[in-house]
Amino acid sequence: MTYFCIFNILELMDKSSPIGVFDSGIGGLSVLKQFIRLLPSEQYIYLGDTARVPYGNKSNETVNRYAKDCTEFLLKKDVKLIIVACNTVSAVALETIKSIAGNIPVIGMIAPAVNGALRTTVNGKIGVIGTRATINSNTYEKSIKTVNQSDFEVFSQECPLFVPFVEEGLINHPATKLIAEDYLKKLKDYGIDTLILGCTHYPLLNKLIMEILPNVNLIDTGEHAAINAIRLLAENNMLGEEKNNMLSNHKIDFYVTDVPTLFFEIAKKFLGFSVESPTLIKM
Ligand code: DGL
């Protein structure tokens, strides 16, 4: 039934319309990177609410209000699909976004990552790391448990210091390693075999996390969301045209609510290539 509805909705839309991606800040570029890799023929509009980041330590009410602003901005740009790159927003405000988006499909980070984790785990012990708001919401755990209560155990851990450490460029710093060992110790003791990296910034700590949890499969939420988007667009004949190929020209319409110091350095770290100057907007 759901698929039937999406089919009719997407049929009315233009396949050359951009995909809108938003995040609390620059971190969502780790998600955009996966989209460009897996869906290189799409046009993208990226919005980073850099003036109000971080969302991860804010109340649900505030995150919902901010998410509404971001969604309304992207809808005005006539996007064909909205990607909620921020795990915090996906965890606490997805329903708000879907209700505002109306006919435009919305993909958050939670369901695709959960599906990926369920396909990956062998021993049924799944770890989730994220911001305080994401972990407090329990959304990942609830989503895993709706699939099958008894077959899976979920161990969640908030890692609030990872975001500033990554933004400060301390990816290989001993202090980051010390904090990571502390955060991940319990997950290691529980014997998880799969870990959902439930925050935009954590894929940049992949190597360090793998050193601490060597036998654990890491789930990149952006990658799984992109796989989900491929399926949705392909099944509805809405994939972008080959001529747009992003791998050759890297053109992104980039909007931010503030241009922070070190913006270009941080953006390059997340995306893997330099970005052009963003357009500054007020929301
Ligand atoms: N983008 C956020 C997330 O994925 C991390 C940064 C923030 O706290 O806003 O949860």
What does this structure look like?
There is one protein chain. The chain has 283 residues and is α/β, with parallel strands linked by helices. It folds into two domains: 2-108 and 223-280, Rossmann fold (3-Layer(aba) Sandwich), CATH 3.40.50; 110-221, 3-Layer(aba) Sandwich (Rossmann fold). Helices cover 48% and strands 16% of the residues. It has 13 helices and ten strands. The strands form two sheets. The protein has a six-stranded parallel β-sheet. It has a four-stranded parallel β-sheet with strand order 6-5-7-8, with helices on both faces. α5 (110-120) packs across α7 and α5 packs across α11 (221-235). It is globular and about 50 Å long. It starts with a helix and ends with a strand. Residues 1-5 have low confidence and may be disordered. Bound molecules: D-glutamic acid.
User: What is the spatial order of strands in the main beta sheet?
Assistant: 4-3-1-2-9-10
Q: Give the total of beta strands.
A: 10
Q: Which regions have little confidence, pLDDT < 50, spanning 5+ residues?
A: 1-5
Order of helices and strands: HEHEHEHEHEHHEHHEHEHHEHE
**Strand share of the residues?**
15-25%
Q: CATH top level of the largest domain?
A: Alpha Beta
Provide the CATH architecture of the largest domain.
3-Layer(aba) Sandwich
**In the CATH scheme, what's the topology name of the largest domain?**
Rossmann fold
The major pleated sheet works out as:
6 strands, parallel
Global mean pLDDT: 92
- By secondary-structure content and strand pairing, the structural class works out as alpha/beta
Share of helix, binned: 40-55%
Determine the number of helices (DSSP H or I, runs of at least 4 residues): 13
Which small-molecule ligands are present, each listed once? D-glutamic acid
**Radius of gyration, in angstroms, nearest whole number:** 18 Å
